[in-house]
Amino acid sequence: MEIEFPNRSRYDLSDDAVVFPVLVDGAERRCKVFRAHLQERYGAAAAMDLVGVLEDNRFYIQGEVIARIKAGVQGTIMLH
């Protein structure tokens, strides 16, 4: 299984989350990391730039996403 992370993260105001794509064997899927997850796991302050927090912790967040993909999670990968 080949997993790649294009560098295209953005903040989604409607969900209060950072979203970014992941390619699994060439097929694009969506990842969504909610503010609460970034605050609890990575110490993001309420007013901090969430995309910046994701970028600072990209290696660990990608590891969480990979674990969920390998566990068989389908559809959007959500960390909350």
From the alpha-carbon coordinates, what is the Rg to the nearest angstrom?
Answer: 12 Å
The shape, in one word, is globular
The structural class is alpha+beta
Biggest sheet record: 5 strands, mixed
Strand content: 25-35%
What's the N-to-C terminus distance? 25 Å
| Strand tally | 5
Give the oligomer, counting copies of the same chain as homo and different chains as hetero: single chain
User: Given the structure, what is the number of helices?
Assistant: 3
How does this structure look, described?
- It is built from 3 helices and 5 strands, in the order E-E-E-E-H-H-H-E.
- It has helices at residues 35-42, 50-56, 58-70, and strands at residues 3-4, 10-12, 17-24, 27-34, 77-79.
- The longest helix has 13 residues, at 58-70.
- The protein is globular and about 35 Å long.
- The termini are far apart.
Name the descriptors:
30% strand; 80 residues; 35% helix; single chain; alpha+beta
Q: SSE layout and pairings?
A:
Layout: E1 3-4, E2 10-12, E3 17-24, E4 27-34, H1 35-42, H2 50-56, H3 58-70, E5 77-79
Parallel strand pairs: 4-5
Antiparallel strand pairs: 1-3, 2-3, 3-4
Question: Outline of this structure?
Answer:
The chain contains 3 helices and 5 strands. With 80 residues, it is of the alpha+beta class.
